[in-house]
Amino acid sequence: MRYRIKLKNAEDYVLLDSEVYEYLVNDEYFARVDFINNLRLHSSGCAVFQKTWRKAAGGYKTETIYLHKFVAEKFLAHLQSGNRNLVSAINGNKLDCRLNNLTYRSRSVASRKRKSSSRIGYTGVYQENNRYRAVISEGRKTIHIGMYATAEEAALAYNRKSKELYGDNGKINVLRQRSSKV
User: Do residues 36 and 13 lie in contact, with contact meaning Cβ atoms separated by under 8 Å?
Assistant: First the structure.
């Protein structure tokens, strides 16, 4: 069974497995601070719990718990190894904190999986005049894949090379549907 938890400051929901949900509502500390009902959408797109406490010596301390990171550390710690220490969502949805959607990745894999901020909209695709260049990095070297008539062709070429070089850990561009004129 899975639970959908409404975020306090957004119209979005967090997805949790029943095992995780039961832990969060039954744990003494998390129940006391009403953790489940105080999850917020962070500017990074993750679900976060934040509480500010007054220190005995004066001043304040803010406690911040990223939900996906907490769930992975509590329930999936056995999957963490070596340089695989960043928690990521397999499907790219940072609010999907179900156990089968969270994984540990290395910094390089996480970087390759990050969403593109390219003006063209595809990772590794750049416009040059009226053609599109596809490039990919391996190590610290840039590899020229080719020149293409459309951004989509260049994105497909990037996808093939990414799969060849990195397998399932490579970035794959999701192609946009082209509108057909009738």
Answer: no
Tokens of 80: 């963490």
Please check whether residue 126 is in contact with residue 120, taking contact to mean a CB–CB distance below 8 angstroms. Answer: yes
Pairing state between β 86-89 and 102-105: antiparallel
- Please write the tens of the pLDDT for every residue from 50-76: 989 888 888 999 999 999 999 999 999
| H/E stretch holding 152 | helix 151-166
Is the pTM higher than 0.85? The answer reads: no
CATH ID of 115-169, from 1.20.1250.20, 3.40.50.980, 3.30.730.10, 3.30.70.2740:
3.30.730.10
Amino acid present at 56: A
Element (H, E) at 11: none
